[in-house]
Amino acid sequence: MPIANTQPGASERIRRLPNSISVVSTSAGDVLVNCPPETLKYLLANHINPPGTILLPPDIPPGSELGSGGFVRRGINYASVEFLIYSNYFVSGRKAHLITVTTAQACRLRKLLEETINGPGDPARYGDLGWLQAECAAVAHHPPLGRAPGLDDMAEIVSLESGGGALGAVSISLEGDTFVFREGTTEVARVSTRINEVAMPLTLAPPRPLQRQEVTLQFIGGSDGFDPAGITTCFLAYLGSTVETQATLFDAAAYVYVRLSHLGLSTSHIAEVVLSHLHEDHLAGLPELILMGSHRVRLLTSDLIYQGLLRVLSAMLDLPIPDVAALFDYVPLNPGTPLELEGRRFEAIYAVHSVPTLAVRVNGVCYSGDMRYDEEWFEELVIRGVLSEQRRQELLRFAEGASVLVQDVGGGTVHSTLSPRLLQALTAKSQRLVLAHTSTHTLPETSSEVAARIEFAASGSVVGLGAPLPDDAETELVETIAACPLFARLSTGERLVLARHIEVVRFADQEVIFREGDPSDGCAYIVHSGIVSVSVGAAPVRVLGRGSSIGERGALLGDARTSTSTARGHVTLLRLRPDVLGPAAERLGLATACARADWLTATPVLGELPWANLLDLALDFQPRSLASGERLFSSGEPGYEGYLLVEGALEFSSADGSVVEQLDQPGRLFGYQAALYGSLHRLSARATAPTIVWTLPAPALERLNLLYPQLLMHLRALGAPPAPPGASAAGRAHQTPPRLPHAPRE
């Protein structure tokens, strides 16, 4: 991030941290600029007292960057302020001062935080679950206030647009793409609003050998949002009798893509995500998983939590709720209604927490969510009329007979507090007790018999029960090939043949795999485990995990390397020698798609994708030539294709024949709104010169929907109806689709 200063020593005012985080020292106190997930951990790890004032970035223009919108850049929310608010209020005893650029942003941030901190604000949203709202209020009760603290107790939200940049003698203004800090009339610091860094977590779970058993839990993290050395609770559950079984992901820790990759996993290994509740430490990785994974997310939670999630993501991304809902698949998991899903039986109850939270049970695995489990307190709540006796019995019995119980023990008033009584009660319910959501891994005094059945969930730890499953190295190779969109096009048999002829090569931490400018070795590679960092010049541009392919362009075209790839930790790649790659490339038709992939690199936004992904997309685009005067589609027809103008010109007319617009700029997508929204074309399109378009047929659009959700969001963002001045996306959800920049309104 470039920083310019206008007086000697001004650079000392700015302390830069990873992930585009800056702390600016002013006479009014420190100001934090940008707040991606785990910012609090980065501050604590660098011995910086969390600032009370937090300045958030401007919205990114809709459709200008893949996987981005509103506060979100490439799946990362740079307004992840919830734990900074908690730190300021509960630790420092003050309100956090949150500054957005616009009043519309301030309004969206308020909606987001009210939902995540206190749950649905409107009692009507609880429907017949009013008792749950009363429970949440009882858990969140804060004695100094005599009630649950609300957002207005803990934070104030202002905007630069409404004068919120005045901090006593200090003023903050936005000038172009720079935040300018002044004390009086003296400029003391400048911080760019551009977020170009590749966001990375502070800590990664160490990869450990995974011997799969009948029930296997693999923890990405087992700590809380305040622990700089730990990762918040998030784990994978493998529930099946074969090693091919996909995993259920419970909650989504921040930077989940990188963390999965470091464990040798890809998003395609996840069958579904169970979301327990909307607190940031359980939700932070979900936008990244939805937008930047190579596998469409199937989400399990309750209707109440799902509706809250849509409101949160809508505010976060500045997208209408219907467009947010289109980005992933929702499967209801409501208390009292068990869900049978591919041989697994999911059951849920609402846990006792400060916001609506699910405790979930599936095939012998029970996850408490952030439940405050305290049997004596439950009795007290019955006496006070907060819990019914039936509800108390439901809480007491839910985990009974579980093979493994993963229990939150974060302590305090809103989580379970570790005590001998708690351990005795929980170990009586399950064969194995795993304690999570805590950085303190010390048991209180208890019997050796009880202690032998208890363990703490550490980052990377593995818990297994039942008979071990036979290892199958060949299956692992086939799974990696299947996780690569390009080679997943091959049949199962062809992938198996490829796996048998592939080479496994290993690289040490920081070892350079390819160097920019070096000649190609004629081989293509697929990441099998670990993380590969890709940079152009000195600038990191992306990280790649399992299933990502690299080196195809050089292998297919003989070109020199266009970037440098470096191992982050120990990395294993699958190498496809020319004699192995050749038949697969011929089968897929890669040679003819290379020119289209190269052409796509120059198109707006699409060019951000790795070349291997562009090559994959190029295989779906079908060239079509139009003579001058030839019609491409007509008003009133259903839309089944999207189109990309390659050369020539098109004229768009309304149903009465009036010319509405002309398009002659190559690289513009059009016509896709009808297919995405399931509507009819409102305009007719006719070539006014010899023209070439690439069509994206309906099956390819569906594949795009499954593998490249960030592209789907990009297209929907471009096609989203315009909001009235000052309105948010939520107000434009059902309006007419708009005119696209440089492309016609269809």
Strand and helix map with partners:
Elements: E1 14-17, E2 21-24, E3 31-33, H1 39-45, E4 53-55, E5 72-73, E6 76-77, H2 82-91, E7 96-100, H3 103-118, H4 130-139, H5 151-154, E8 155-159, E9 166-167, E10 170-175, E11 178-183, E12 186-192, E13 213-221, E14 234-239, E15 247-250, H6 256-262, E16 270-274, H7 280-283, H8 286-292, E17 298-301, H9 303-317, H10 321-325, E18 329-332, E19 339-341, E20 344-350, E21 358-362, E22 365-367, H11 375-384, H12 389-397, E23 402-408, H13 420-427, E24 430-436, H14 448-451, E25 454-456, E26 462-468, H15 473-483, H16 492-501, E27 503-507, E28 512-514, E29 524-536, E30 539-544, E31 549-550, H17 552-557, E32 564-576, H18 578-588, H19 590-601, H20 611-620, E33 622-626, E34 631-633, E35 642-647, E36 650-653, E37 659-663, E38 669-670, H21 672-677, E39 684-687, E40 691-696, H22 698-707, H23 709-718
Parallel strand pairs: 3-4, 4-7, 7-8, 15-16, 16-17, 17-18, 22-23, 23-24, 24-25
Antiparallel strand pairs: 1-2, 2-3, 5-6, 9-10, 10-11, 11-12, 13-14, 13-26, 14-15, 19-20, 20-21, 21-22, 27-32, 28-32, 29-30, 29-31, 29-32, 33-40, 34-39, 35-38, 35-40, 36-37, 36-39
Helix pairs in contact: 3-9, 15-16, 19-20
Fold and architecture overview:
By secondary structure, the protein is α+β, with helices and mostly antiparallel strands. The chain has four domains: 10-192, no CATH class; 213-464, Ribonuclease Z/Hydroxyacylglutathione hydrolase-like (Metallo-beta-lactamase, Chain A, 4-Layer Sandwich), CATH 3.60.15; 474-603, Jelly Rolls, CATH 2.60.120.10; 621-732, Jelly Rolls (Sandwich). It is 27% helix and 27% strand. The chain contains 23 helices and 40 strands. Strands 18-17-16-15-14-13-26 form a seven-stranded mixed beta sheet. β14 (234-239) and β15 form a beta hairpin. α3 packs antiparallel against α9 (303-317), α15 crosses α16 and α19 (590-601) packs across α20 (611-620). The longest helix has 16 residues, at 103-118. The protein is globular and about 80 Å long. The relative contact order is 0.09.
